[in-house]
Amino acid sequence: MSILSQLREKPWPQSNGATVLKVGPSILRTPTEVGLLFFLASITGLFTLLLISYNGRILLGNDWVPVPDPAILWINTAILIFSSIAFHRARKHAQASKVIGIRKNLLVAGLLTFGFLSGQTIASLQLYELGYYVSNNPANAFFYLLTGIHALHLIGGLFVWMRTQYRVQLGVDLRKIKVSVELCAIYWHYLLVVWLIIFVLLLTT
Amino acid sequence: MASETVVIPPAELPEVELYHAKSWITKYVFSQDAKVIAIQYSGTAVLIGLVGLVLSWLMRLQLGFPETFSFIDESEYLQYVTLHGMIMVVYLLTALFLGGFGNYMIPLMVGARDMVFPYANMLSFWIYLLSVLILVASFFVPGGPTGAGWTLYPPQAITSGTPGSDGGIILMLVSLVFFIIGFTMGGLNYAVTVLQARARGMTLMMMPLTVWGIFVATILALFAFPALLVASIMMLFDRILDTSFFIPMIYEMGEVIPREGGSPVLFQHLFWFFGHPEVYIVALPAFGIVSDVISTHARKAIFGYRMMVWAIIAIGGLSFIVWAHHMYVSGMNPYFGFFFATTTLIIAIPTALKLYNWTLTLWKGNIHMTVPMLWCIAFIVTFLNGGVTGLFLGNVSVDVPLSDTMFVVAHFHMVMGVAPIFVIFAAIYHWFPLATGKMLNNAMGQFHFWVTFVGAYLIYFPMHYLGFVGVPRRYYEIGETTFVPPSAADLNAFITIMVLIVGFAQVVFIYNLLTSIFSGKKSEVNPWKATTLEWQTSEFPPGHGNFGDELPVVYRWAYEYGAPENVDDYVPQNIHPDKVARKPIAE
Ligand code: HEM
Ligand SMILES: [Cu+2]
Question: For residue B458, which of A79, B46, B498, B580 is within the disulfide window of CB 3.0 to 4.6 Å?
């Protein structure tokens, strides 16, 4: 039932006195999935507001000096894309219940994420060496702020990844593993999209 | 009577495994049971709320009797104002309505054994507690807590000269960041439990309005808090790392500080994009609770249930497009102001509808003037009062002269201070028997109600007048002016005395709570004869897992009170239709 027709339901006793019981809560997804969707919606708010502030700060001040974007960001982006692909493949293997495939791809995906995070750190250090300190210019500050908050979200994801990887190693409870892999994949794809948007913004401003 | 067809859909998902605590510590301290977490949340919120209350006494002492108390100086006054506001809005009301009532009521009212993510739920409380402790710690750092006003507007929030610009503001912001992280963990629980863990038969439109209110408020919070998070993090950067997100070029102590170009107005937008929905994060649960308590104590179905649900949703949606009505005096394009004034006035429509429906629920009801009912009626009147002054302030031309006066203070205390607090009292008197198995003492309850209700009006009505004559808000002392008549000083002294009397009534309330827990009259099962599931548990008060071996199945909405065709005055949601005694139908 669509949400709108659910909200049009008349719950009070009908005139013929009959109680007609409708279908209960329609459970299309597992609670964890719905939880993740809400979480993604909430952090979409977070990133949107950050990006609005980014543009707002450019427009409202007249002191914006663009940061040169370190070349390593391109490599990092590629790494994150590969990580997402690995998660995608882990998910496919999970759907086919192939534990070995899950384990391999999951491991690769996680390691690539570590690679991405190291790359981002290097990018920041390079800028810092060049004298682009946080306090010099809002463009610098936003560079560190955006990459930092994005990285924190990936680090949070890595905790879930570690738990999943551990479960896969033990090979326990395929049902739970499937759910975790599924959720990780969605989360990583999401953070890839967020990163691509941030990256484009950094390149163009 | 025609036989009724009852189709019970089979459960679509297996029951979630319930976590069972193995030791005393995991049962009562690091507990994953929503009911225990609810009590932990409520207890912490009330304790920090008492700090907020004491701060308000100190402020009132200063305002009522200026130049009398040497232990309150200008800086301290501003710190009291700030911490009082922040504590009351965020750490008391938000935490109590969502973390406290949300945790207690949602699983019980939707017929679930617990929240869907008990572990995250537990973390949510401990992170909240941490944020409270950080906030309290700010009282003890050099320079004291921040005195920037609860709105924390930059640049003054972080420039020297504002009290607490050393450590105080940093701790305040860090505390908010933790609060938001903790809230998000709880909030996901509340929303998903409502969507995914309802008992069979409980369609969305069969949910009690309490659940609706908390549910929509949670969603608002999940979208509004990120704005405060962004603002807090950016201000932390500005304060600690000397960035200039919000800091324009300014002179500080006669010198230009080495920053420029930042936008204070950007902060205001972020803050109020959170701040206005926050009002409804507090109000919507209150709306829901009032609806249910009124219906139960007037033995009458809520009037216009569907409208009530739609109004909650509409108010929730609209609350995101009115924020700039807090910024009329910050300088904005006139069309912008026009837009926000219009949306603000539009919110009055669904809100007025709710007020009508409550009144119509009471109309010809079999009203029991119990203490919870008294609080609810007081809420309706007070919310109406505050709402009407809100319509004034929503208009740009009226707001400009009234902005930053005591009129605003009176207005928002009516709508989001006094009114929701009344509902909290209603809820506590209503659900205390459920949580403890004991009744609260009625005489003390009546005393508490009448003193608080009358007192609140004696405090805040005159405050509107003070605002009219131009007494500014957040002022330590106004001294001699050409526009404030000397009688205002007497009025201020009067208000302060009232505050102390109302404060005494709260002491009586707390005494009542504490003594009733231990030696109160034992409550019978379902003392108010309510229909909702929380009263239909196998044990009373409900134990771990809430319901016995079988989860309840829901056959009707929550408002079957005084239905003419039934023999009984009320029919709980989970009674099978064949077991409901009907009056014989005259042929
Ligand atoms: C006994 C109850 C209360 C009393 C006597 C009281 C009194 C006051 C006073 C005297 C001020 C400062 C006015 C000024 O100098 O500008 C104030 C500010 C404020 N109060 Fe209350 N208050 C009470 C309860 C509440 C509650 C329940 C809330 C919850 C919403 C609340 C929210 C605020 C806020 C947000 C401010 C503004 C702080 C600021 O200007 O930064 N108060 N209150
Ligand atoms: Cu507002």
Answer: B498
Residue A162 CA to residue B139 CA, distance in Å, equals 40
Torsions phi, psi for B367 (to 5 deg)? -75, 125
pLDDT digits (tens, 9 = 90+) for B555-581: 889 999 988 888 889 999 999 888 888
Has residue B246 been placed in a domain? Answer: yes
**Ligand positioned closest to the Cα atom of B148:** 1
Kindly report the average pLDDT of chain A as a whole number: 89
Residue B201 resides in a domain: yes
What domain count does chain B have?
A: 1
CA distance B256 to B253: 8
Q: How far is residue B218's CA from residue B191's CA, in Å, rounded to a whole number?
A: 7
CATH code, domain with B437: 1.20.210.10
Q: In this structure, which amino acid lies at residue B8?
A: I
Asked, for residue B441, whether it belongs to a domain, the answer is yes
Residues 6+ apart with CB under 8 A from A132: A67, A140, A143
Q: Which residues of B touch A64 (CB under 8 A)?
A: 261
CATH class of A32-47+54-204: mainly alpha
Measure B247 CA to ligand 2 centroid, in angstroms.
24
| Entry pTM | 0.94
The residue ranges of every structural domain in chain A are: 32-47+54-204
Q: Tell me, yes or no, whether B19 lies in a domain.
A: no
Q: Is B440 helix (H, G, I), strand (E, B) or coil?
A: coil
**pLDDT tens, B238-284?**
999 989 999 988 887 777 777 788 899 999 999 999 999 999 999 99
Interface test with A, best of B106, B193, B223, B300 (most A CBs within 10 A): B223
Residue owning the nearest CA to atom 5 of ligand 1: B56
Handedness of CA B117, B121, B127, B128 (dihedral sign): positive
